[in-house]
Amino acid sequence: MRRGRRVAVLPTLLVAALMLAAPGHGLANRAPAPRAAQGTTGARPWMDASRSVDERARLLLARMTLEEKFWQLFVTPGDPLRDSAAFMRGAYGVQLLDLRDGAGSADAAAARADSMQRFFVERTRLGIPAILFEEGVHGLMQRGATVFPQAVGLAASWDTALVGGVARVIAGQSRERGVRQLLSPVINLARDPRWGRVEETYGEDPWLSAAMGVAYTRALEQAGVVATPKHFVANHGDGGRDSYPIAVDEATLEDLHFPPFRDAILAGGARSVMAAYNSVNGLPATANAGLLTRVLRTTWGFDGVVIADQGGVGGANVLHHTASGYAEATGQALRAGLDVIFQSSAADAALFWPAFRDSLMPPAVIDTAVVRVLRLKFALGLFDRPYVGSATPSAVRDDSAHALARRAAESSIVLLANRRHALPLSRIARVAVIGPAATASPVGGYSVAPVRGRPLADELAARLGGREAVRVAAGPWPTTAEWTVVPMRALSHDAGTAPARGLRGAYFANPWLSGEPATVRADSSVDFSWTFNRPARGVGTDWYSVRWAGVLDVPARGTRLAVEGDDGVRLWVDGQLVIDGDRKVSYARRVASRALGAGRHALRLEYRQTTGNGRVRLLWEVVEPSRPSEEQRIADAVLAARGADAAIITATVDEGEFRDRSSLRLPGRQEELIRRVAATGTPTIVVIFAGGAVITEPWDAHVDAVLQSFYPGEAGAAALVRLLFGDISPSARLPYTVPRHEGQLPLVYDHLPTGRGDDYVDLTGRPLYPFGFGLSYAEFEYRDLVVSPARVGVGDTATVTFKLRNTGPRAGDEIAQLYIRHTIAPTAQPVLALRGFARVPLAPG
Predict the structure, then answer these.
(1) Is pLDDT of 32 > 80?
(2) Residue 497: which residues within 8 A CB-CB, separation 6 or more?
């Protein structure tokens, strides 16, 4: 089914104004401010700062060896000071992973960054500086930097000015630490809430995502930090599964998936783009010339740097099977328009260098990619001002950044339900706060632990005058672990001269365990998922088998064993077959037929795989007598609620990168907890800490209020308390649709008209909470809507005006949202399409 091209009603003059305000995206025109060049420009003419960026790049390119060119197209986490041999020919850049758990001092981070940069400038032959980069989805991912609300929460603010302000702080904190590129924003559309990375996005709508992406990208780029919108393009597919193959027509790409990226480049000035892991219409995104050359380069005029996601280039070989090896995958990627190979280790360079050495792509392709990289480095001023000390960054005060984080959190929390005006709270002397976020601050993915802010229980204690006013109960674990992987300490095997930890694993290049094994090694445990890699040397990605053997030490409490596997598994204990799952069916957990007593037991596990994507785990039952049971934890929460004037339950889910959910309900026994606490009669408020949608229908009728706080950042608890007690009025709106049941998925507000029915025999087709929904303590009235002219033709511009009034006694911000619908069009158009929005603060009356 094709989607018709959408018609925007943004006035032409406004579009022009946006383009004039945006920084230019042409790298060749971005020369740094003139400054005396370092060194002698005669020997190194590219150091002459009076020359153009393009000329300097060409002069340097002419002096480079093929190996030096390769390393300018290769990037990895690492430390050139510890591994100098690997980086002696330079590098595109370095990801500063080792600074994430530091002391949190910007000065210390800057000194570390400068020492790394000094290696590249002073110790490599040509002195080409590196781009130091990090993650920055909702804050620079270094300890000590401000942790803002996760991206989906920022989207829920529907406030582009706020997002731009957040990005400016992130850019300032990046610059003062030497970071000049951030692998953000994530502007993929969250079209399926089961996707684990919904939290990193700006929601399901292309218009909202584009607006937020432009605000974020422009602020970074104007501050001299390279933004890297990702992942190009559409990197989750059927079932909400991460990096799943995408097969869509050109109209769908043009209508849905391209606009946020196009706007981030043309209006936001992004100088880098990250390619996705998945395949798009049969070709890996990293080697898709239709995406990387025809769309990005030719149609949009992008002349920046395209970087692969970490390990993405090799995916053509090990995942998509469109290349016969890493060398061919490399050649395909660069010929298609990719510039930079991103890997997890400098040692991985050996996999990709042969494509250069053996001329698997024309020299002009390599030179074009290298020039793009060099232009970016010259444009950033790295050759003239390589160190933080000479970069004169705009320092960001901690207090002001933390205040902005609180304001962002206040603007991001959505009030979903408020029965009998339970909120705001009043005349509260004692409160019970229950669940994982009572004493911790969930911050979401791509974060470090914040050094500022207090958890919810502490903020409530400060509000109510002391800790005795707050009763804390942990509640049940969000995910109940009945089984866990048998650890290495419980496994051993005979290594010939002495016992060794782990099991002896024999890997066979056939599914029958026949002949001599291709590889024999010690495995610390059996916990494998071989989606990305071959299990062992000499074994393919399918059509193999493994036999593990050794000894299991069972603790005094005894245990049961289980095996999870997606193909044939058999387990022997003390010579007795206790699990016989040799018939190929599908992935399952199989529990041993008998429990094991304490002591040492001989163990043999056999596994075979014929179709790939192997997964196998050896588990034992979790029995921890010292830990309170789930039932006891629920009972403790109920008791805390009975003695309180209000109960606040914090609920959460298990999600994140490569952690997609099949169910959108609260995991573990959290739903039972909510119903039992609510049954005490104590007013009950549920606060959901989750990036993706949560189905609340099984329990929300039992509670008094429901809030979606997403992951509100380091000041989230303070913001939440201010909202709960009415210091501010909720103003956020959902950036995605919340379904009633997973069976409705996919369910988005801007779907095309149905050909006939829209419901199910046992369920409506309507959502639980629609896109753009959110309640407020304030009351608003819309009237006098006028569209001029009344009829709009192709290419025409319309002006929409209306009056908005705060009719209640409380001040508040309303999110005015403008949607259009085509009454007739050459191809089917969405039933609704967002085409404008504004946050409007209004006093009472």
Answers:
(1) no
(2) none
How many CB atoms within 10 Å of residue 575?
Answer: 8
CA distance 30 to 27: 5
Q: In what order do the strands lie in the sheet with 131-134?
A: 226-227, 181-182, 131-134, 93-95, 74-77, 341-342
- Decide the pairing of beta strands 519-523 and 503-508: antiparallel
Q: Which residue has the tokens 């395909």?
A: 332
Q: Distance (Å, rounded) from C-alpha 109 to C-alpha 102? A: 8
User: Does the structure show a pLDDT above 60 at 27?
Assistant: no
Which three-class secondary structure state does DSSP give residue 706?
A: strand
Pairing between β-strand 599-609 and β-strand 614-621 as defined by DSSP bridges? unpaired
Three-state DSSP class for residue 273: strand
Secondary structure class of 655 (helix, strand, coil)? coil
CB-based contact 749:217 (threshold 8 Å): no
Residues 203, 190: Cα–Cα separation, whole Å:
5
Other beta carbons within 10 angstroms of residue 514's beta carbon come to: 10
Average pLDDT over residues 99-119: 83
DSSP class of residue 785 equals E
Distance (Å, whole) CA 60 – CA 580: 65
Q: Which residue has the higher pLDDT, 774 or 17?
A: 774
Type of residue found at 235:
N
How would residue 477 be classed by pLDDT, with cut points 50, 70 and 90? confident
Cis peptide preceding 746, ω within 30 of 0? yes
pLDDT digit string, tens, across residues 132-147: 999 999 999 999 999 9
**Closest CA relative to residue 24, chosen from 518, 410, 379, 464:** 379
Average pLDDT, stretch 478-486?
81
Q: β-strands 93-95, 74-77: how paired?
A: parallel
The residue with tokens 């707050």 is 470
Q: Examine the pLDDT at 30 and tell me if it is beyond 70.
A: no
Q: What is the pLDDT of residue 17?
A: 33
Cis, peptide link before residue 233, omega less than 30° from 0: yes
Could you give the CA distance from residue 286 to residue 232 in angstroms, rounded to a whole number?
Answer: 9
CA–CA separation, 172 and 161 (whole Å): 17
CB 815 within 8 A of CB 839: yes
Alpha-carbon gap, residue 365 to 293, rounded angstroms: 12
- The total of other beta-carbon atoms located within 10 Å of residue 838's CB is 13
List pLDDT tens digits, range 193-208.
999 999 999 999 999 9
Six-digit token string for 720: 């939440």
Distance set, CA 538 to CA 390, 527, 671, 691, 745 (Å): 52, 20, 48, 42, 42
Model confidence at 18: pLDDT above 60: no
Long-range pairs of 406-409 with CB within 8 A, sequence gap ≥ 24: 406/715, 406/718, 406/719, 407/162, 407/719, 408/148, 408/149, 408/153, 408/154, 408/157, 408/162, 408/166, 408/713, 408/715, 409/149, 409/153, 409/709, 409/712, 409/713, 409/715, 409/716, 409/718, 409/719, 409/720
Q: What is the C-alpha to C-alpha distance for residues 778 and 843, in angstroms, rounded to an integer?
A: 9
Residue-wise pLDDT tens digits, 710-769: 999 999 999 999 999 999 999 999 999 999 999 999 999 999 999 988 999 999 999 999
Average pLDDT score over residue span 177-200: 97
Cα distance between residue 808 and residue 99, in whole Å:
50
Write out the H or E segment, with its range, that includes residue 686: strand 684-689
Residues ≥6 apart with Cβ < 8 Å to 333: 284, 286, 287, 308, 313, 316, 341
- What does residue 426 show for φ and ψ, rounded to 5 degrees? -150, 155
The per-residue pLDDT for range 74-101, each reduced to its tens digit, is 999 988 988 899 999 999 999 887 667 6
* DSSP assigned state of 29: G
Three-point CA angle 708, 774, 840, nearest 5°? 120
